[in-house]
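Table S5 (text form). Sequence records supplied for joint modeling of the two-component complex.
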Amino acid sequence: MITLGDYLVVSGILFVIGFAGVMLRRNLIIILMSLELMLNAANLSLVAFSRFRVDSAGVPNYNAQVFVFFIITVAAAEVAVGLAIIVALYRRRQTTDIKDISSLKF
Amino acid sequence: MSPFLFWIFALLTMIFGAAVVINRNPVASALSLVVSFLGLAALFMSLNAYFIGIIQVLVYAGAVMVLFLFIIMLLDLRAEERRRINWLASAGGLAVALILLGQIVSVVGHFKIAHKTFPPLSGSTIDDVRSVGASLFGNYNLPFQIVGVLVLVATIGVVLLSKREPG
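The corresponding structure-token record, covering 273 residues in total, follows.
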């Protein structure tokens, strides 16, 4: 049978894949995609805990699913703003590579 | 949900998630991310969270990925593929990620509740859209309206950021 731990491990692996993407890739758009992957990994573990916490009436805990709904909404707004910033950056610098964007580097 | 289907969708999600990071071509990465999100939506449905699964397909695999592909096509990111890789920095990043993975697996392994299976649900039909909606408009009404304001602010911000500068 599938246990809660299986879902948590899948969620952890997905989070690590996203984290590795943020650490390894140099392209801003790929970094934003990896961030989305990390957010979705958190969503998966939240939904798994929601299904696990079944009350005496046999109904799952829906508070976690409302939380996931909020995460998805905020993530969609974040992607829109992030991509707009990337487009504005590309217009000025003609690049999306983080190696070329170092004016704020100490 | 049978264990067989769970592992198929989990592997689909993880392999295509890894393909997002490994692919050098941004368009291929974006398309891998779509498949990964669809696998994740199937995992949500396997947890009886049908509403979240459908929202995942509509918002992520639909709207967000169209936005990503649109921006990738707009910026024409061909030159990125020819860059050479800094192997030392890559090895360092990979090492940090693997240490994090080891930590997560060890924590889940020592977590007593994680070895239990999921408890059964009551009815044969699950009315989760009604229940999520009831708590969204009841308990969580104020956060819901704040999120509405946030989306409005994001829309205005995007319009302002992508406006062509005068002169």
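Note: Chain B has a mean pLDDT of 88.
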